[in-house]
Amino acid sequence: xxxTPQKITLIGAGLNGPLLAVLLMQRGFAVEIFERRSxxxxxxxxxxxxxxxxxxxxxxxxxxQAGLWEGxxxxxxxxxxxxxxxxxxxxxxxxxxxxxxxxxxxxxxxELNIALMTLAEEQGxxxxxxxxxxxxxxxxxxxxxxxxxxxxxxxxxTEIVIGCDGSASAIRAEMLKxxxxxxxxxxxxxxxxxxxxxxxPDGKHLLEAHALHIWPRGxxxxxxxxxxxxxxxxxxxxxxxxxxxxxxxATQADVNRFFESRFxxxxxxxxxxxxxxxxxxxxxxxxxxxxPWHVEGKALLLGDAAHAIVPFFGQGLNCGFEDCTxxxxxxxxxxxxxxxxxxxxxxxxxxxxxAIADMAIENFTEMRDxxxxxxxxxxxxxxxxxxxxxxxxxxxxYAMVTFHRIPYSVAQARGIVQDRMLAxxxxxxxRLEDLDWKKADRLIRSDLxxxxxxx
Length: 455
What we know:
By secondary structure, the chain is α/β, with parallel strands linked by helices. It has helices spanning 16-26, 57-65, 69-72, 109-122, 170-175, 252-262, 264-267, 273-279, 304-307, 316-334, 338-368, 374-389, 397-402, 408-426, 437-447; strands at residues 7-11, 30-34, 52-55, 76-79, 81-85, 91-95, 104-108, 126-128, 131-137, 142-147, 153-157, 160-163, 182-197, 212-216, 221-226, 232-239, 282-291, 294-295, 299-301.
């Protein structure tokens, strides 16, 4: 007789939960998911924290491992680089990678979430919607669930629970009650507002479709990512308080004046700007760090529940999906020895999730300010030239993070060394042609070791 498969309970049917469910079922486990929201395939609801996401190598690798990547190709738009918009409307394009194979993919959070949930159910997962986790007893393994329609609360017993329930994780809230549980959260003093650039009357994009558009303005910025329906999902990042802030934009006239003076070429494409602005909430951005991520081989935190990061390196989705592949590698190596698997998972991942959390905050300054600076653009040209000449030694930090699966902590450490090199090589030149290649060769060969590149 075939043994009854071990059942694993996942909390949260966002992005990580359904992907993890598919990977676990491929390994013979039974999976049940509880989700506090309604089924977005049947009810029009907010897709979550951001209307668009950037899918790159780490996330694609996870989808390939699950056999889901090919099915996603119809809902992505490859972005080849950043298109910077100056106040006077001048455009400057900066490629992301060394060639057109190195792109990031704009994908709708809702479309991706819908596709993953459908695939998880097709492969045998059960998803219970409108079931909010309101408690978890580590000793008994009982999860307390509230029916969001009736208010009724019930207990659900499980051997293994994995919290994929985001930055406000209910499972983590229960772990906070345990002795010696470390928790820290840091909010940016910036918020974000979702806006839209509609498509043309014939359904075409009104801006270059294969680019991430950025309006960098020093202390704040507007960005736009393409959708497959011809629209652009825009996000305004602005301080909560101050002269140019969400607090200063109290009326429709305030909003129109602000955009007309700061983003004139964008405002002309946004006929419903003011209505859009006041109908959408202002979101907050938080970095969360905690430890341990697991309890007695019974409960584990994964994705934003363990390590929420701000969105400025485009790695939140990719980092969470990479969690799933790391966990599966350990499960394949050790079997269902959950205490060992969970312990090694945290040991492998936490140093790297801490690194990408730091780099994401640093990249905010780059996106809102430095991308428009001529010295920064020169450094980017030098980076690509050095990578072309020394492909196994010098790989730009952005490329290590986005186009390879080099551990985030390695990318961070090498990035610090390479930044020091670039400062020395670019300090006294204005053109790539003036680069001192002998000096570059000496610095690279003395300070960098060969990389094992994984794509």
